[in-house]
Amino acid sequence: MRTPATPKQRERGMEGTEISAEDFARYTGVSGEPKVAPTPLERDALRRFVQAIMDRDPLYYDDAYAMGTKYGGLVAPPLYPVHAFRPLPGGADPLDLLHDDPDADGSGGSDGVYFGLKPIPSPFKRLLNGGNEIEFYRCLAVGERCIAHARFADVTLKQGKSGAMLLTTIETRFTTEDGELLVINRQTLIWR
Amino acid sequence: MTRMAQLTFDDIEIGACIGTIDKGVMTTAHIFRWSAAVENFHRIHYDWRFATGHDQLPDVLVNGSWKQHVLVQLVKDALGPAGWLWKLKFRYKKMDIAGDSIRGRAEVVAKEVIDGLGFVTLRIVLTDQNDQVSTAGHAIGVLPVQGGRPVPYPFVRKPAYDALTLPADA
Question: Which one of A124, A176, B95, B102 is CB 3.0 to 4.6 Å from A180, fit for a cystine?
Answer without folding.
Answer: A176
